[in-house]
Amino acid sequence: MMLQRTFQHIPGVGPYREKDLWAQGIRTWDDFPAAGTGAPAISKKSDGVAREYIAKAREALARKDLRGLVELVPSREHWRLYPDFAEDALFFDIETDGREQQVPTVVSLFDSAGLHVFIHGRNMDALPEAMAARRLWVSFNGTCFDAPVLRDYFGESRFPKPDAHIDLRFVTKRLGMGGGLKEIEDSLGMGRPPHLRGVNGWDAVLLWRAYKARGDVEALRFLVEYNLYDAFQLRTLMDVTYNKGADELNQDVPRLPVFHRGDVLYDVSKLILELGPTERDMETIARVRSQDRDLREL
After folding, report:
1. How far apart are CA 66 and CA 136, in angstroms?
2. Where in the numbering of this chain does the YprB ribonuclease H-like domain appear (predicted)?
3. Which of 13, 188, 270, 287 could bridge 17 with an S-S bond, Cβ 3.0-4.6 Å?
């Protein structure tokens, strides 16, 4: 995989020097020349340092020490870690109430165990524990928006920190896939079903407000479906992004099988159908109906 072909964790080695090593035939850590064998790969002094850092990375990978690898590999190259830790990956996305002090309303998670939905006023308090169970987080703009909103809401002491966080907004941009998440999805032929096309973040705010104001469970179901797509589509995008990154670097490594959303659509439907009204929702409906009767009598 790409991680074992990474040399940018070595001090003084950036993208160009790494490509030079590849051009020399030093394609993996195993190819780096041992001490006293042949001409230096970088320089006599730097080769000793290189061997030391290759050994550190090799040991960290053998221990599945994701945090140790993150400390070695530059953040722009963290996408290379994904295949070795895919089973520990968490894809997530949030919606908020749209107010100045953003409050998370719906948060969807997708991991190897399946889909999980957390809703404000229902089960949101369980979110930190669920996210703490996974060491590698994958999001789109999550380092700038989603994670900070959740950290502000739950507090620094309660909200977990992952060992690694791959923000696909920046990785896809570097690979020439510009635009927002939905634009990239469309360009890759992984667009959403007709009823979700054109739905945006402000629509998500309005759907939440409709649910809160009237106990409108249909609005909540639509919002949850929209948010679930934001989460599990990231799995497909991560696979595509990793493969494209390997292509751009012209590396002969196995490409990842691209996740197909058809594998989870049954679970999406099941989750949405299970979202019935709570006792509080029923109270809201009764209150609004009571007000309507009062208004009609005026």
Report:
1. 8
2. 90-240
3. 13
The pLDDT tens digits for 155-194 are 999 999 999 999 999 999 999 998 999 999 999 999 999 9
pLDDT band, very low/low/confident/very high, at 298 (cuts 50, 70, 90): very low
Closest CA to 174 of 68, 57, 28, 75: 75
CA nearest to 78, candidates 187, 2, 176:
2
What DSSP letter does each residue of 207-259 carry, written as one string?
HHHHHHHH--HHHHHHHHHHHHHHHHHHHHHHHHHHHHHHHHTT---PPPPPP
| Helices of type H across the chain | 15-23, 44-62, 66-72, 127-132, 147-154, 168-174, 181-187, 201-214, 217-248, 265-274, 279-296
Are 41 and 26 in contact by the 8 Å Cβ rule? The answer is yes
pLDDT band at 78 (very low <50, low <70, confident <90, very high): very high
| CA angle, residues 71, 43, 56, in degrees to nearest 5 | 25
CATH number of the CATH domain containing 283:
3.30.420.10
Do the domain assignments include residue 292?
no
- DSSP bridge pairs for 114: 111
Q: Which residues pair with 6 in a beta bridge?
A: none
Portion of the chain with pLDDT greater than 90, in percent: 86
For residue 10, what are the domain limits? 2-73
With a cut of 80, say whether residue 295 has pLDDT above it.
no
